[in-house]
Write a structure and sequence with these properties.
The complex is a heterodimer.
Chain A: E1 4-5, E2 10-14, E3 19-25, E4 32-38, E5 45-51, E6 56-59, E7 62-67, E8 72-77, E9 86-93, E10 101-102, E11 106-111
Parallel strand pairs in A: 2-11
Antiparallel strand pairs in A: 1-3, 3-8, 4-5, 4-9, 6-7, 7-8, 9-10, 9-11
Chain B: E1 4-7, E2 10-13, E3 19-25, E4 31-37, E5 43-50, E6 53-57, E7 64-70, E8 73-78, E9 87-94, E10 102-103, E11 107-111
Parallel strand pairs in B: 2-11
Antiparallel strand pairs in B: 1-3, 3-8, 4-5, 4-9, 5-6, 7-8, 9-10, 9-11
The chains are: A mainly beta, B mainly beta.
Chain lengths: 112, 112
């Protein structure tokens, strides 16, 4: 059973526009959420995270929004750049347990 | 300076063989992990070690045996390799108390 779901396998966006990547989860025990970015033939790289006590966290062009009642989070990238083209993984954990449960990933393609 | 490194990067071997994958981190972290990314692209936790002690062992065949000689290293030995073991194996590390994990570049294992 998938506890973390990324229902869009791919997303195409034009350079300069906003990219919105979505993630849903089913386990209400999750209290920490992370986004990782992965280029081909490389390991996932940490991007941004959010604790369940917040509903928004921002870091430069990247903002993560958390809607606990809907068990939904999203990653906004503004403005999108061609270098953002990668697979984005949503991950969740239960505080103090440290194991990450990953979604299947969304491939983002930003075209010039 | 590579923070989390894995060797080898690629591994092609025959069914029934025994092989090892090595992982080293120079981040000073005390917790290390092995993840498997299968053909469906899911990243799943296999093992977690904290200060050389096994703390998480998900449902993994006992043909897989992790070994942590010290806090900076977590190796994965696989006996009697099977076709279904073909996957990308990622090592990761984190500091206890932090949810953020840092990943190695992955080892692409192909069992023929």
């Amino acid at each position: 059973d998938q506890q973390v779901k990324q229902n869009s396998p791919s997303l195409s966006v034009q350079e300069g526009r906003i990219s919105i990547l979505n993630c849903d989860y089913t386990n209400s025990m999750f209290d920490y959420f992370l986004w990782y970015k992965k280029y081909p033939a490389e390991g996932p790289t940490f991007l941004i995270s959010i604790s369940s006590i917040k509903d928004k966290n921002e870091d430069g062009r990247f903002t993560v929004f958390l809607n606990k009642s809907a068990k939904h989070l999203s990653l906004h990238i503004v403005p999108s750049q061609p270098g953002d083209s990668a697979v984005y993984f949503c991950a969740a954990s239960i505080g103090g347990y440290s194991t990450l449960t990953f979604g299947k990933g969304t491939m983002l393609l930003v075209s010039p | 300076d590579t923070a989390v490194s894995q060797t080898p990067k690629y591994l092609v071997t025959q069914m029934g063989n025994d092989k090892s994958i090595k992982c080293e981190q120079n981040l000073g972290h005390d917790t290390m992990y092995w993840y498997k990314q299968d053909s469906k692209k899911f990243l799943k936790i296999m093992f977690s070690y904290n200060n050389k002690e096994l703390i998480i062992n998900e449902t993994v065949p006992n043909r897989f045996s992790p070994k942590s000689p010290d806090k900076a290293h977590l190796n994965l030995h696989i006996n009697s390799l099977e076709l279904g073991d073909s996957a990308v194996y990622f090592c990761a590390s984190s500091q206890q108390g932090s949810e953020t994990q840092y990943f190695g570049p992955g080892t692409r294992l192909l069992v023929l």
